[in-house]
Each structure stands twice: as C-alpha cells, then as structure tokens.
Amino acid sequence: MSTTKTDDINQLNSFLRGEISAVETYGQCIEKIDDPTLTAKLVQLKRSHEERTRKLAAKIRELGGKPSSGSGAWGSFAKLVEGGAKVFGKEAAIAALEEGEDHGRDDYRDDLDKLSSSVRPFIISEIKPAQERTHNELSRIKSSM
After folding, report:
1. What residue segments make up the domains of the chain, in order of their start?
2. Which CDD domains match (predicted)?
3. What is the mean pLDDT of residues 14-23?
C-alpha cells in the first residue's frame, strides 16, 4: 500500500498531538514540584518536546497540511499529574511522565512505517533521537530517586 501526502500529514499530526500532550504534562509537573533541581531537569525535557512540536508543525505545513492544535494520548497523563503531584509526591509524577515517555517512544517506533519514504527520514533524524534522549533522561531521573 502506498502512502499519500494526506496519510503523512495525518500521521505527523498524530505525533504532534502526542508532543503537545507531553508539553502539557511536563508543564503540570513543573508547576506542582517544589524541588528546584528536579524542576530544572524537567524544564529541559519540556523544551525538547516543545522543539519537536515546532519541527512537526513546520513539516506538516511544508506538506500542505494544517497542524493539530490540541493534545492527544498524553492528555490523561496531564489530568493525572495536574492535581496529583503534591498529593502523591514527585515519585508518582515522575512515574506518570515516564509512562508518557514510553508511549511516545513506542509511537515513533511502531508508526514509523506508516510514513512515506520521503517523510520517514525526517522522523528518524530529527524527532526520534530527541524522543529517545528525553525517555532515557527521565529514566535516569527516576532511577536516581
């Protein structure tokens, strides 16, 4: 089955919604956690996701599509974290973020083949490595707690 430009745009928008949700979730955690060292690390990870949203939106526009503006699968993580970080502690917030990072990593891995051969290299070189870095860094943060 050949992939159309519309298929590429739809898949990139799916990735974009996940990144928007990641940004929202990190934002919720950052607001609730009062550990300055941990907060600084989370801000860096959030910025990485923000950069991915910009890159994905630009690629979607380049293909003639309209970038999604709302969050996706991570939305439930944002809701969980929103009120829970102070109640359940930073460990629970980090665990929720890690689950989201796992989801993002798996999405890029599992859905890469849904993209055309002309768009796939963009994800492989620009997006997936950054996702792997944030995933690995959050795992390091969690294991150091």
Report:
1. 5-143
2. Ferritin_like (cd00657)
3. 93
